[in-house]
Specification:
Strand content: 15-25%
Number of helices: 6
Structural class: alpha/beta
Order of helices and strands: EHEEHEHEHEHHE
Helix content: 25-40%
Shape: globular
């Protein structure tokens, strides 16, 4: 049986790191792409490739796909978590910051998906999983979260990007879905006070924040053959926070 290969962005920490470890444990080859160094999981050298770069750079995205092909001969899935969080309010947010957040969160998602699709379309297709946010719900209306206008705008754009790419890539045999996490216990929420964490818990039906592994497992499902009849979907993983 051919070993499946995934590219995981934002792989140095949080959901991306959890996804990398779960995929390796499930027998996948993984190229872990991040702006920060990614350590090699113990005993996984043969099935692991680390890449440092910027997802908003076409050269870095295309280079990551090319190196993955050289190392593993294939790319079956992209699981894209790389993103910048920003809490600047409208009156403190400047154009450079706004554009940088959109450049990483939106343009970066497009460039990685494009780079992977350029190979997948000629080799039997594949799966792309992007990442939305509980700060914007599936209908495109505001949800919960501490993100400012730049971050929330970028994550709203992921809804449109997911559905647009699903239409474009569908005839090529490539599925495109997105996972939309609620508040998750990662570096992005490390500065939450006890009061903030309690309020997050109150907005869910399970009474707590999510773990990176819980989000990762849903993203991996979307990349798997178990989700072969799913494309263009944004899947909320928020402990029932949509009903809070």
């Amino acid at each position: 049986m051919t070993t499946r290969t995934a590219i995981v962005t934002g792989a140095a920490s949080g959901i991306g790191r959890a996804t990398t470890e779960l995929l390796l444990a499930d027998g996948w080859n993984v190229c872990a792409f991040d702006r920060d160094p990614v350590t090699v999981p113990k005993g996984m050298n043969a099935r692991f490739l680390a890449r440092i770069g910027d997802v908003s750079s076409t050269d870095d995205c295309e280079g990551t796909v090319a190196e993955t092909i050289i190392r593993f001969d294939r790319v079956d899935a992209l699981l894209h978590f790389a993103a910048l969080h920003d809490t600047n309010t409208w009156d403190t947010l400047d154009d450079d910051t706004f554009n940088r957040v959109l450049g990483v969160n939106v343009t970066g998602a497009f460039l990685m998906a494009k780079a992977c699709a350029n190979w997948m379309k000629d080799h039997g297709g594949g799966a792309v999983v992007l990442t939305g946010s509980g700060s914007i719900n599936v209908s495109g209306l505001g949800g919960h979260g501490r993100g400012g206008p730049a971050y929330v705008t970028s994550k709203a754009a992921i809804i449109g990007l997911t559905r647009s790419l699903a239409r474009s890539f569908g005839p090529l045999g490539i599925r495109v879905n997105a996972v939309s996490p609620g508040a998750t216990d990662t570096a992005m929420t490390a500065d939450y006070s006890n009061d903030a964490r309690a309020k997050v818990a109150e907005r869910t039906l399970v009474g707590r924040m999510g773990t990176p592994e819980e989000i990762a497992k849903v993203a991996i499902f979307l990349a798997s053959e178990g989700a072969a009849y799913m494309t263009g979907e944004i899947v909320n993983v928020n402990g029932g926070g949509s009903f809070g």
